[in-house]
Amino acid sequence: MDTQLQSIAERYRNALLNDIIPFWMKYSPDHEHGGYFTCLDRSGKVYDTDKFIWLQGREIWMFSHLFNNVEKRQEWLDMALSGAAFLGKYGSDRDGNFYFSLTREGKPLVQPYNIFSDCFAAMAFGELFRATGKSRYGEIALNTFRSILSRSGNPKGKWSKVYPGTRPLKGFTLPMILSNLSEIMAPLLDAGTVERLREESVHEVMDVFHSREYGLILENVAPDGSFSDSFEGRLLNPGHAIEAMWFMMDLSEIMGDHRLAVKATEITLQTLSKGWDDKYGGIFYFLDVKGYPPQQLEWDQKLWWVHIEALVALAKGYRLTGDRRCLNWFEKVDAYTWSHFPDPEFGEWYGYLNRRGEVLLPLKGGKWKGCFHIPRGLLQVWKTLSDVEPVKSE
Description:
The chain is mostly helical. The chain has helices at residues 3-27, 53-69, 74-90, 115-132, 135-151, 173-185, 191-208, 238-255, 258-275, 304-321, 324-340, 373-386, and strands at residues 39-40, 46-48, 51-52, 101-102, 108-110, 170-171, 210-211, 216-217, 220-221, 235-236, 287-288, 302-303, 352-353, 359-361. The strands form 6 sheets. A 3-stranded antiparallel β-sheet has the order 3-4-5.
């Protein structure tokens, strides 16, 4: 490992352990009712006490993951256990379907319409099972995961707004998440199921949603994988695509498939080339694959998670393939990210910038931003760059 990469890895490690995690340890726990506050202003003050299941599950997973992969710190495990006690008691209905949001005390606010609440709950309890070995966490994770698989063909069920039959589409988000979630669940599954899920995940992401015509990942396709020339069908989400590519890179190592790593790296580079804002820098939030005006009004914002996911994919792509383009892009995205998102005065990172890179919202957490993407990304880059032994590109 060269000196430059070692220095970068140390910067990411330091930010994770001495900035991001201490911020959430200090301001996030609800010591009275359990679980976590995620609506934190710039200084860490709680500005809303509602609790969103996505972020509760993600934070449980994050502290469990730190315990499992960085250091056996009791304070990290205690944080995870506090969230799990709250989520296990209040998070789901009688059928085990997880709500979208709760009051501070744990009363349901929004119905369990969103399958991703279940995904992040399974993720949380699956990782906590690894940390503790306690069967009750494994049972919750496994039951929730089975429910997710059974609902995957119609994720929103009765809550769907789409009129059936007119323009059926399948979305990329669930296959993307399953490609990562299945690995978290692997200790609870038999070997045959794990192998099948890996093969299905790679097929869905790299064959069904990857457009050969455009060389990019589409957010929505027809049930047979064909292109839909509609607002939804033309939609690109560079952050989702790039995040999925590092999931594919991880699977390429597990499955011993170097060609998969090369293809995922190439898609990452093509996505960045398409998604980079040449005028102001940074990665666009949404784009139209044909260049038409996106319908998402926030299309040109620069978001925290998109950039940290890109850094993870580029670090992994370089380590696995030795492609120097990954390193060049890493330096470019790294420079933008570290000069725009971190808050040197109060700590942690801003989440939302306008196109020019100015802070749009000074919050450190909210309905969507919590203790997840940044710490996970910092950990991934730190560990990945620490292991770099470049190989020659094919």
